[in-house]
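ok so for the tutorial part 2 we go from a plain amino acid sequence to predicted structure tokens. step 1 is just haveing the sequence, like this:
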Amino acid sequence: MTINKSLSFPQAIEATQSLMNKINAGKLDETNIEKEVSSIVSTKNGGRGFFVTYLTSDMLLADRPSLGTINGLKSSIEIVSELLVKNLAMSSAMAIAHARNGDLDNVRGSQKVYRRTSNLIQQIKLDQIDQELEKLKTTISTGKGYYDDFIERWGYDVEQQEAIQKAIVDTLV
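step 2 — the prediction. this is what the tokens look like for a chain of 173 residues:
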């Protein structure tokens, strides 16, 4: 499957769901999984669509990413590293927000996204992701830095920022 380079966010969601269905049905070998993942995440919209679908999926395959998935993600590491770091931050912070609202279903959903994101980061094992995590950690600890706009845009409070810091430390072990 060749993915169009101008893949929209909704098209990327659809392509990822289709890919996951094929993986789940055992219809793709690791080489083809890698090619499809690589093609989807080659653009920012594609990467966003991939992660929103993959990380929130009810399919257990997202808990145990295959070598093809990992290698496909490595093919666009600049896009993937920033999106993984932001997903780690957002899922950690949103678990706090959902808990405050007594929304246990969404707490569990955020925790699932956090676990899967952390697992992907640890399995990809590239310095670029660790560097992005350090940039986010520095931004939070100093109140300024590369991820300042991101933190401000989402309005993360002190408790949420502490949860993000803990997620970073736990992931970098």
